[in-house]
Amino acid sequence: MCEDLHNNGIKVVLDGVFNHVGRGFEPFMDVCKNRENSPYLNWFHIDLNGNSNYNDGLWYEGWEGNYDLVKLNLQNNDVVEYLLDAVSFWINEFGIDGIRLDVAYCLDFDFLRRLRRHVDSLKEDFFLVGEMLHGDYNQRMNDEMLNSATNYECYKGIYSSFNSSNMHEIAYSLNRQFGNEQWCIYRGKHLFSFVDNHDVARIASQLTDLEKLPLIYGMLFSLPGIPCIYYGSEWGQTGKKEQESDDSLRPEFTKPMPNDLTKYIKKLISIRNQSSALQKGEFKELVLTNKQFVFERNDQQERIIVALNLDDQEFTISLNENLISLIDQQEIENQGQIVLKPKTIHYFKVK
After folding, report:
1. Helices H, strands E: what count in the chain?
2. Which end of the chain is more exposed for a tag (fewer CB within 10 A), N or C?
3. Is residue 121 within a helix (H) or strand (E), and if so which, with residue range?
4. Do β-strands 13-16 and 98-101 pair in parallel, antiparallel, or remain unpaired?
5. How big is the CA angle at 313 (ends 311 and 318), to the nearest 5 degrees?
6. pLDDT at position 126
C-alpha cells in the first residue's frame, strides 16, 4: 500500500502514540505480575505502595487521569530505544514519510530532540507534526523538535468567527501568529490548519449556517499553514462529539460520496498547489469588519488578495489593481472598486 501511494505522489504520515500504552502492553503486564522484580519497572511511573482503579496492588500514572492509558517514562533510555526501534522499522520496512505525534504537548523535550535526530539520520525531509492544543507551540515546534503543530487556536477562531459573524476573532489570531510585526510568534512557520478532525465535531455540524460551508473551506485554504481535510468532510459529512464515544466522528464509509462541495475543495487545492504566495507567502490584513475580511498573501513571485464577505448584502472594497479572480477565472480591469456579492470568498491574483 505504501508503495502504491508513493507511486501516485502521496506521502504517508503515521500516527505515533509515544506518550502512553494500553494496559495490555506486555511490559506493563509484567510489572503488574512481578512488581519490583520486573525488568520493566522503570518503564512507567509506578508506586508499589499505592493502588489503581483496577486494584492492581500498585499505582501508576495514566494519561490525564485515564487509567486505561498507562503513561510511559520517556526519561528511561530503554523506553526511548524501544520507541526509536519502532520508528526505524516503519521507515526502513515501509518507507513512511512522517509521523503525527499524539498528545505532543505531553512529550518530553529531550525525547523529541532524540526523535528528530533519529528520523533525520534515516530519511531526508522526514515530517514530524505534533498534536498541540494550547500554549506556545514554539516550545516543541523548532529546528530541534517538530516541523509543525496543530493550530487549534485558528481552528477555534475560524468556526467561531463564522458562527458569530465576528471576523475580528480569527483576524486577531492570524495577526498574533503571522502578522507583519517582528513579535508575531509563528512568522515563517507552517502550522497544521483544519476546520475539523477526529476529536471535534464535523464542521458541517458545527456551523449554524450551512451556506457558509464552502466559504470556510475557502478561508482554510487561504491561510498560512498546511491545510488538512478530514475524511468525509469533503462532501459535508456531519457528526457531533459524544460524551462516551467518538464513534460518530469516525464512521466507516464503503465508498466516496462526492458532490459540489467536493468539486469546490478540489478547485481550492489546485489553486493553492499552483500558488507560491498561498503556500508560503506572508500575511497582511487589509480590511476588517464584523462580516468582511480582506487580507493579502505575498511573496517575491506573486500577490494574492483574499476577500471574504459573510454578509447577506453586497460589500464594496477599494482595490486599485488589475486582477485575476482565481476561483472563477475572470480578469478584472482596474476600476478602483470591487463589489463582493453576499456570502462569497474570492482569491484575486494581482496581475
Report:
1. 10, 19
2. N
3. helix 109-122
4. parallel
5. 90
6. 98
